[in-house]
Design brief:
With 135 residues, the protein is of the alpha/beta class. The protein is built from seven helices and three strands. Strands 1-2-3 form a three-stranded parallel β-sheet, sandwiched between helices. Strand 2, helix 4 and strand 3 form a beta-alpha-beta unit. It is globular, with a radius of gyration of 19 Å. InterPro entries: P-loop_NTPase, Small_GTPase.
């Protein structure tokens, strides 16, 4: 079912709750699922930013900074932010960071504007047409 949600995604947030360790344990499952189902046109994974949400509930979260940087590097996250949706902490910064990374990865956006009036066929459609028995 997640393939439907990921369809045509160009970036993602993976969010865990700092007050519930089990949500952090699921981060790699979500990242793996995302990477297996959606890619950039060149085949590389889409930019994914890790959000450590509910930072307003954690007093000594700054101690985990070096470990989180290393974790993100090892597992292919573009970066990470401590956030609080409740208190609006780092929400705009995280969104801006993700958008900047999406734009950096998609240098082809300028080329797509030139193709506005054209029809693009995906590889599966082209293969299906080549197998057609019609005259």
């Amino acid at each position: 079912m997640t393939r439907v949600y990921y369809k045509e995604a160009v970036g993602a947030f993976v969010v865990f709750d700092v007050s519930r360790g089990s949500t952090f344990e699921a981060v790699l499952k979500w990242k793996s699922d995302l990477d297996s189902k959606v890619h950039l046109p060149n085949g590389s994974p889409i930019p994914a930013v890790l959000l450590a949400n509910k930072c307003d509930q954690k007093k000594d979260s700054a101690q985990n900074l070096p470990q989180m940087d290393q974790f993100c590097k090892e597992h292919g996250f573009t970066g990470w932010f401590e956030t609080s949706a409740k208190d609006n902490i780092n929400i705009d910064e995280a969104a801006r960071f993700l958008v900047e990374n999406i734009l950096a990865c998609h240098q082809s956006f300028a080329n797509e504007e030139k193709d506005v009036g054209t029809i693009k066929l995906d590889q599966e459609a082209a293969k299906a047409e080549s197998r057609s028995q019609c005259c």
